[in-house]
Amino acid sequence: MGRHSTGRSNFRLSLWIYVSLALVLVAAVATVLWLRAISDTSEQVQAGECLQGDLVLPVASDDPLSAMKLIDAYNSSAPVVRDFCIKAQYTFDVDKAGVFVTAASDGQVSKLLEENKRTVTSVEWPTVLEKQVGVAARSKVDVQSMPAPVYPVADNAVASALVAAHSGGADVARIVSVLKDNATVTVSDSAEQSQPMIIVTEDQKPLSFVFTPIPDVKQPVRAVVMNTTEGVSEDVVRAGSDFVSASRVSDVPALSVAAVAANEALHEFDSTLSHHDHDDAHHHPEGVENTLFLLDTSEAMGADTGNGVSFHSAFTQGISQVAKEIGAQHKAVALWNYSSPINPGVVRGWRTNINFDDGTFGQGAASYVLGFGTGGRPLTRVSTQAAVEYAATYAHESKQPVRVILVTSGTTDSSDIHVLRDKLSEAVDLHVIHVGPGQKDQELADVAHASAAVNTADEAVPALRKAAGF
Fold it and tell me: Is this model's pTM higher than 0.70 or not?
């Protein structure tokens, strides 16, 4: 049977189809807008995590290199504490710090904090790094059968105590005796012996020495959170706690019998030292200042010293060693070199390689100086004037004195010496080391605070150390 027409149009059905499609489209647009709104809100929340802005966390230390490693690692995590974006930053001033990082003994740290009128938030000082302890010698040694080593207690009493306990048994009285007998011995003095075997951590190894690790002997680096003061806020202390928690080594093994004996010996050793004795034992030379090395890299520095070693080699290696020693005294080290321009387009005779703001406490200069070559003529006066001007600016800004150590083979320029004399002051002193057989610039030596002459490779390091204030 056939379908009968109703006489009504099918337009009503088509209309409902269009309406339904429109509703679906509206729902889809609404969903997209809703998802975008969620995304925008999430981004706003993320951007708003630092609602309180930035907060600097000052970190002080008796081991700057370890502290800077920890600071870099912490800052790389973009830490946020109580709506503050935290930026850890090294400081020389214990009285301004929220955290103190130390490789020293409890007694040494306690005395230092007491001197700076600081107290700690906890008796627990977590380990945040471990440093390998070993022997520095002119060649690799067998640590199991080596003769009695040198213990540079003045530079690292903790490492000395740990090795004394490891090699001689957990006899506290004997370890204390080792510490007392070597209380004024330093790494640099020990390195001048004929066949030294020096107990150090790897970062204390003297230049050109070989480091042999002693198995199972590691020196802990610990972090201490300090209480608030007028200059250290509660927010800084909270940030300090987060720094220590984030830096903490999680898998530190329990102390061995030898380590416990070493700690007991250090406690007894520290208690027997007066404040004055401690200053002597730690060998902080009064004369060491922030130091700018200005090194002549002219062709004349390539001359042989008489034993197959050039003056250039002797002084680049010497500066590398002494720069690290200066940095260990918490002083900044800058490095410039000079000679007449060799490369096309270069018009001035000096190069500003490492400035005081590099923040590596001599390590940057110690590495950079080993890459210098030689060439050209020594434009000494104009380069020295530029270095002294920079030193004066830094001394004024930092409110700390600066020493410029000039190593020169002579002078081929004739800049007015009176201009240089006028720029020297109580805040900036100049030490001149004349190298080799070339003609000495006596006028330059006369305006300097001190001068010396070096004719052999062996004299390089002693001359540099004396000029630096050691």
Answer: no
